[in-house]
Design brief:
Layout: H1 20-24, E1 35-38, E2 44-48, E3 51-53, H2 89-92
Antiparallel strand pairs: 1-2, 2-3
Length: 94
């Protein structure tokens, strides 16, 4: 007989949902909100008030679980392609 274990990873990291700044920032600051852009090298970066932030290789590496194992090719993953459990708590516990 098997036993089911319901486990919550206490060291799990989360990523901000893609629509966080669009949905929740005060309209007064909406034009200054962080947004994803494609840089001159074709890589996805986070732009905050005109400054590019994040790893120059690609910001999608934040959610690239599996890159070290070769499951995901490092430097190619877009932020939105990260594991859904990183954005959505319901997807995390399924």
């Amino acid at each position: 007989m098997t036993r089911a274990y319901n486990v919550i990873d206490a060291d799990g990291h989360i990523l901000e949902p893609l629509d966080l700044w669009d949905k929740y920032i005060d309209p007064e600051f909406r034009e200054r909100r962080p947004r994803f852009v494609i840089d001159d090298n074709g890589k996805e970066r986070l732009s905050v008030e005109g400054k590019l932030l994040g790893n120059p290789r690609v910001i999608g590496s934040l959610g690239s679980v599996g890159a070290r194992q070769g499951i995901v090719k490092a430097g190619t993953l877009k932020y939105a392609e990260g594991r859904k459990g990183g954005f959505d708590p319901h997807a995390r516990i399924v």
